[in-house]
Amino acid sequence: LLRFSAFLLGNVGTCSYLPSFVPDKISRFTDSEINTIDKDTELKDRIISALKEIYDPEIPVNIYDLGLIYRIDIDENAIVHLDMTLTAPGCPVAQTFPIQVADAIRAVDGVEDVVLEMVWDPPWSVERMTEEAKVALGFFD
């Protein structure tokens, strides 16, 4: 017989057996919270799809699979916070590419605005690329 103290459960009293404990904890999300999570996931998927339409001008791979996108967060106001990098700080499109990326994300249905930050740490490397990108560029034989 398992017994859990009230502070471990977050409830008053004790739990005599595990099966009733597990469903009680799982059902803590409301339908509204679950819908919000689903909407955020759907919006993030649409953002990633938009990013996969943007190609590095010098490498025939999209910027998402190339590993140039470090972070995509969506706040409660549908503002997308994105950290990205370039393959090298001296990249010839360093001034225009972030604008192109932000504009593509703003065009995604459900996005209110974009806050894009260029980051250089950690530096981009081949290890950040997806397996598909590595195959496309001939890194695997």
Give a written overview of the molecule.
This protein has 141 residues and is of the alpha+beta class. It has helices spanning 6-9, 18-26, 31-51, 97-106, 131-136, and strands at residues 69-74, 79-84, 113-118. It has a three-stranded mixed beta sheet with strand order 1-2-3, covered by helices on one side. The longest helix is centred in the first third of the chain and has 21 residues, at 31-51. The chain is 35% helix and 13% strand.
What structural keywords apply?
alpha+beta, 141 residues, 3-stranded mixed beta sheet
Spatially, the strands of the biggest sheet line up as 1-2-3
- Low-pLDDT residue spans: 1-27
Q: Compute the separation of the termini in Å.
A: 57 Å
Q: Let me know the largest β-sheet.
A: 3 strands, mixed
Let me know the number of strands: 3
Nearest-integer average pLDDT: 80
The SS-based structural class is alpha+beta
Rg over CA atoms: 22 Å
User: SSE order in H/E notation?
Assistant: HHHEEHEH
Count of DSSP H/I helices: 5
**Portion in strands:** 5-15%
- How much helicity do the residues have? 25-40%
Sum up the overall morphology in one term.
globular
